[in-house]
């Protein structure tokens, strides 16, 4: 479906079109919010807020209701429910009174901000009392925010792990933004997933092969080029030469890309033989002719990631030697590096870097590529994302509302109008029941009555998401995590 053919009236769970008949008589306001619920025992205690601007620009801004779309929806839902339950009159009033623009206000955390779980991330309310039913009609679309938020959060966790090891074994963070390469384009469910997930990764890193994410960052977040890549071989470009000509395949890549970095997958047959006898012998002089700016990046792509990578780096040390950096860790010659893109997730990358460190190797030697663990092995429950109604107005009177299931207290929801503030202890907390002070509220109006009110650039978002000092210092980070843990356990959200 082309963007111009998108019908907003059909972009919801179908049962929601019956809800206008179910609210109390004389209701005039429905106010709801989105959060990532707190969960004990998870590595992911904070989230990166990202992706709402794309959704608003693409699907909700401007005149999204037309007579043609009303008629299409009317026919569709008649067939779907086998009875007339579609609110044709209500939608036509949106068209006539608001020119098809949604009388909705959305306030949200600035994109890129790091927010402890359990806090409000955005709120939604109707601005015209006649259209109270719109607030939760758009829940379906808005809850899909779980995906870019989760990818951006997982990507940032990778960055924290990489920063910790890079700082410890090199004394600096130089090159950190290129340490995790997005390999996930082919592993996601759709082009739009690739765009959303790919852009979410680019909040934290500048290394990607997911073109859809780059285009999204360009079109919706004002960044001409958000990420970079290098020429790289794949197995087809190597095995098409035949097993006996693997050396010629490698040499062809070196010839074609004599300047600038180049990556060559080298495990088509025997990664250890390739490193020792082809790269480290037959093509050794060709490799050594290259420079730091034109380095060869060898890519293992099978076997146990940690064991294989350590064996590979030992072979390369035997063939090419190494030097000690300023903090006493070994570094391969600047013309030679490794990228591990198979079997990478938060656990394995930490394990690999720790084992390398234990063997005396700096994290400078390796880059990582990540596909499904970055963009696909996650779901709405990864961060426990939820959208709930917390306030209504009926007959001119406001009422705080909530859910509190006796069978699962963790699913209890917040009450009343919400605001987000930083308290005197420095922690972010959600203020419920409308008790927050407007001047302290960190939620910003981003959408109102069909118009985008706030437009963030990727540059601004990256600044919001940058690693904090305590996240770069293991001792400070442990202290900060302990404080955050106590803060959550004590229920001060």
Continuous helix count: 18
Terminal CA distance reads 42 Å
Largest sheet: 7 strands, antiparallel
Arrangement of strands in the largest sheet:
14-13-1-5-3-17-18
Number of domains in the coordinates? 2
* Named CATH topology of the largest domain: nicotinate phosphoribosyltransferase
Q: Helix coverage percent of residues?
A: 25-40%
> So what's the overall shape?
elongated
CATH architectural category of the largest domain: Alpha-Beta Barrel
Account of the 3D structure:
By secondary structure, the chain is an alpha+beta fold. It has two domains: 8-150 and 385-468, nicotinate phosphoribosyltransferase, CATH 3.20.140.10; 154-376, TIM Barrel. It has helices at residues 52-60, 67-81, 88-98, 134-137, 139-143, 146-170, 191-201, 211-221, 235-239, 246-256, 271-282, 284-288, 305-320, 346-358, 372-375, 458-465, 469-472, 474-489, and strands at 27-36, 46-48, 104-108, 114-116, 120-126, 180-182, 262-265, 296-299, 323-324, 330-331, 336-340, 366-370, 385-394, 397-400, 419-422, 428-431, 444-448, 451-452. The strands form five sheets. A seven-stranded antiparallel sheet has the order 14-13-1-5-3-17-18. The chain has a five-stranded parallel sheet with strand order 6-12-11-8-7. Strands 2-4 form a two-stranded antiparallel ribbon. α6 packs parallel to α7, α11 (271-282) runs parallel beside α13 (305-320) and α13 (305-320) packs parallel to α14 (346-358). The two termini are 42 Å apart. The model has no long low-confidence stretch (mean pLDDT 95).
